[in-house]
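Case 279 in the screening queue. Each case pairs one protein sequence with one candidate compound; here the compound is NAP. For every case the pipeline is the same: read the inputs, emit a complex structure as tokens, and attach any notable structural observations.

Predict complex for case 279.
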Amino acid sequence: MTNTTLKPVLILGGTGKTGRRLAERLAARNIPVRIGSRSASPAFDWTDKSSWTGALDGVSAVYISYYPDIAVPGAAETVEEFARLAVNSGVRRLVLLSGRGEPEAQRAEEMVKATGADWTILRCAWFAQNFSESAFLDGVLAGQISVPAAEIGEPFVDADDIADVAAEVLSNEGHIGELYELTGPRLLTFREAVAEIARGSGRDITFSRVSPEEFKAELEAYGTPADIAWLLDELFVRVLDGRNEHLTDGVRRALGREPKDFSVYVRETAATGVWHVNL
Ligand SMILES: NC(=O)c1ccc[n+]([C@@H]2O[C@H](COP(=O)([O-])OP(=O)(O)OC[C@H]3O[C@@H](n4cnc5c(N)ncnc54)[C@H](OP(=O)(O)O)[C@@H]3O)[C@@H](O)[C@H]2O)c1
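Case 279 output:
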């Protein structure tokens, strides 16, 4: 695809952590964008298949970011059904946002490849922005993060890097059939990541490693839906077992530069003030 195309790129999750950034980057390259989310117009909802056709109408490519998580049971089939509909609607270019070391995510990757589309897969580590734009922000603000994360290094990747890679693969030739495994440049345990955020934000934040049973009870007490509780258990207890404790060269291969370090993420995020809200 070249940037002279007038057909928009459909960005699923286009108001979320990576999708919002990708939309900004494509717009800056004068590539038209259509946001795919429940609040967009036309609305796109993963749970309402009747909304899929309208979102796909007349688009040149799709960035597929599944919600709530590509690791949940059944995600692969849903992503496959959507990808097949896209191809049958004439959309050849598909970029899938995936996760590392997650059986369901890797199944979804294989299914997208099998559609015959011109695919690129972005298989990502945990996003640094989970600490500032989603799951762990409340914990940072409350000064207490209690999760069943073992002392295992995770190469947190910055959503800016993911969006840079997605924008590159969607606007330049040469990335079809590539699987980019995207990590940051450094392994950090959750304890170390929280300590860096505490230092950078000037907040007191305690990290406690709780047992999976304590974690489950805490989630129940907060009224967390069962599927989200299952997902967190899957990600912290089963996937965070050392299988992903290594760095990859995906950002360098796709962009020709090194990924952003977690310390830069902390410095930039602290400067936005998001960690200085008083609860
Ligand atoms: N977070 C990580 O660390 C991480 C790591 C690796 C891979 N991933 C993968 O990245 C993907 C996105 O995860 P994320 O945590 O970054 O989420 P996110 O993109 O920040 O999620 C929010 C986005 O999803 C949309 N959304 C919510 N419910 C929806 C629905 N029913 N139908 C359509 N859109 C919906 C929201 O818009 P509306 O509210 O307007 O609908 C918003 O645009 C997941 O598949 C996940 O497995 C995440």
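Case 279 observations:
- The two ends are 46 Å apart (CA to CA).
- Strands lie at 9-12, 33-36, 61-64, 93-99, 118-124, 144-147, 178-182, 206-209.
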